[in-house]
Amino acid sequence: MLSQEMVKLGTNRSVIRDLFEYGNKRKEEIGADKVFDFSLGNPSVPAPSCVKEAALDLLQNGDELLLHSYTSAQGDAGVRKTIADYINAQHGTNLTADSLYITVGAAASLTISLKALAEEGDEFITFAPFFPEYRVFVENTGSKLVVVDSDPKDFQIDSAAFEQAITPHTKGIILNSPNNPSGVVIREECIKRVCEILEKKQREYGHAIFLIADEPYRELVYGEVKVPYLMNYYDNTIVCYSYSKSLSLPGERIGYIAVSDKAEDWKMIYAAICGAGRALGYVCAPSMFQQVVARCMGQTSDVSVYKKNRDLLYNALTEYGYRCIKPDGAFYLFVEALEKDANAFAEKAKEFELLIVPADSFGTPGFVRISYCVSTEQIERALPAFQALAESYR
Ligand code: PLP
């Protein structure tokens, strides 16, 4: 017999992947320029030039054997130090190489962190709307995902609902800001309130409750928006980071976990992270790309393109009568469906060759996600279709 759980996961593709496959088929049928695919969160802006320069230099002038060899299980010590120094310079922390674990992207950062923390019967809280893979990642550890609805008027955290959801079984919370799919950046006062509640509940229950900060979109913010660095607000924090979005490197699979040195028994937590990485086979992240990202500290892809896309799409859609919150970050617009059932609405959108994702699996029925990490030209071409879709509901 096989694990039926895994068979189910492997055969039930995510709604996003299904839509993407549908789009590819449709493009073959009617031509790529007639299909408006807003399904995936695949960066459309090329990686900054430092990536190519670093890769070429490493390939041409680096030690070839070393470049392709195993690193330490937790990542090259020099690379970890470079990243720790960068975080410290940015956020005033005191991290060292020994609190960093290099991973193959945020998905691995999350699965390793959850595996390191979870014991039987544990619960992890997250806030809707949320990245649907959290359910898969949390349940795979045998733990339960508890979902707390956000405040529907601005998708900030509803602190009263959050406090109510915490139980003696709560091992941690996963907080994602800037958020996929809403694009919302959680405000500092909201973060402070969440941290106060966590402190209070830790005292009440007499055990640690961890804050897992899922931050692949940290640098993708528009305007003067502050994304609080959560270690500076709460000691038991573990940051899960990825270069997939900030450096447009999703296919290279590279990111890290940073354990706060102020966390209770942080050395033990770090040991558990190393153990979880080992148990899951996530050791020695790609050696060459460890070196590449170490040479690109502080660099990002051209975020102004996403801002331009956001403004274009947000202004046009609200003018056509769609309702959505103006996102401050990431590259998604989270829009109220024009009928109650977002699945039916997304199906209707297909008649206009618009591929948009119904948000039921993000924990917020009645909404759709539009990924605007596409070319500005695709958005311009798609606007009449969005307008026609809105008119079809009048
Ligand atoms: N977390 C969130 C909120 C995401 O949106 C994604 C990817 O889209 C991930 C984690 C996984 O990122 P990675 O590709 O680096 O594994």
Helix content: 40-55%
Give the spatial strand order of the biggest sheet: 2-8-7-6-5-3-4
Average pLDDT works out at 96
Distance between the termini: 53 Å
Low-confidence regions: none
Radius of gyration over C-alpha positions, nearest whole angstrom? 21 Å
Number of helices: 14
Supply the helix-strand structural class: alpha/beta
Question: Mind sketching the topology for me?
Answer:
Blueprint: H1 4-11, H2 15-30, E1 36-37, H3 49-61, H4 64-67, H5 77-91, E2 100-103, H6 106-117, E3 123-128, H7 133-139, E4 144-149, H8 159-165, E5 170-176, H9 188-205, E6 210-214, E7 237-242, E8 255-259, H10 266-280, H11 287-294, H12 303-319, E9 332-336, H13 342-350, E10 354-355, E11 357-358, E12 367-371, H14 376-391
Parallel strand pairs: 1-10, 3-4, 3-5, 5-6, 6-7
Antiparallel strand pairs: 2-8, 7-8, 9-12, 11-12
Helix pairs in contact: 3-11, 5-11, 6-7, 6-10, 12-14
The site of pyridoxal-5'-phosphate has 13 residues, from helix 6.
